[in-house]
Fold this sequence. Notes:
Elements: E1 2-3, E2 28-35, E3 38-46, H1 57-61, E4 64-66, E5 69-73, E6 79-82, H2 84-97, H3 105-118, E7 130-139, E8 152-161, E9 170-173, H4 191-206, E10 211-213, E11 230-235, E12 238-241, H5 252-263, E13 267-270, H6 275-283, E14 287-294, E15 298-302, E16 304-307, E17 310-313, H7 321-333, E18 344-346
Parallel strand pairs: 1-3, 9-10, 9-16, 12-13
Antiparallel strand pairs: 2-3, 2-8, 4-7, 5-6, 5-7, 6-18, 7-8, 11-12, 11-14, 14-15, 16-17
The protein binds 2-OXO-4-methylpentanoic acid.
2-OXO-4-methylpentanoic acid (COI) is lined by residues 68, 194, 228, 294-296.
Amino acid sequence: xxxxxxxxxxxxxxxxxxxxxxxxxxxxxxxxxxxxxxxxxxxxxxxxxxxxxxxxxxxxxxxxxxxxxxxxxxxxxxxxxxxxxxxxxxxxxxxxxxxxxxxxxxxxxxxxxxxxxxxxxxxxxxxxxxxxxxxxxxxxxxxxxxxxxxxxxxxxxxxxxxxxxxxxxxxxxxxxxxxxxxxxxxxxxxxxxxxxxxxxxxxxxxxxxxxxxxxxxxxxxxxxxxxxxxxxxxxxxxxxxxxxxxxxxxxxxxxxxxxxxxxxxxxxxxxxxxxxxxxxxxxxxxxxxxxxxxxxxxxxxxxxxxxxxxxxxxxxxxxxxxxxxxxxxxxxxxxxxxxxxxxxxxx
Length: 347
Ligand code: COI
């Protein structure tokens, strides 16, 4: 791999106490091209704009997918990745669905390791601090032919991160717009899945909600996910989360929380969740918690939700499941506790 290092790091110019999620990037980035059926020219170079033709197919037909992952630094300055193989598996699934070539695991992992080694000083120690890593693939072939491209770029960029949402989060259970449908691309981390959410989310924001809870596109009766997060509901002492389907992203944080909950003896049901079940539980005081999970948000408690022009507030609970699960997860990620699942990987 060709490596060109920066002459001078940008770290001294960064205010690490006031990071806006994903708006400051580390010194280096990784790029690799797909040409004539092969991944070629793997390269690490200073973070910089890229040159791309206006007719690149990604602009016109949207062939683009990405991953979100994080690296953490422990008290001994060791850097850890969390379940990176899962991210590679998922980018392969996303790429296949979007008719894009598969990035080999060796290139993905080597790029991550070299990049993290070069940019490790960007990762601050301390709970909540991490490096958000964004691998992505897009069609850069210059031509307006509306078929799958045969030239692509795979890149990795990294951003120091603290919290994703600052402030309280309320969500709206959506009844008209849909995020994904059966047979569609909802399970893929396709760039277009996010674009399609922005307009309905702007409307929800005007009503005082930060995010939307998407429901099934056929009847809007079943809970799916929240777009940047998978969802968990606590009714009484049972935790519920919807099963993964072709319209729900297979979140790595989601599946980790499920494993941790099982180990902690929390009763968890993975099954379709009816919206009416949530409303009824809320009305009779049984709905104790809703929280989202995702790489960027980690575990995000939701303080209230809206449905059919009604707004509901959730109670404040002691020893919430979200607090317990988040702590267990963070302790593994930051190398504070043992890792009985074997999820931590030293970079
Ligand atoms: C992540 O959690 O990594 C995501 O992909 C959500 C993102 C759109 C901020």
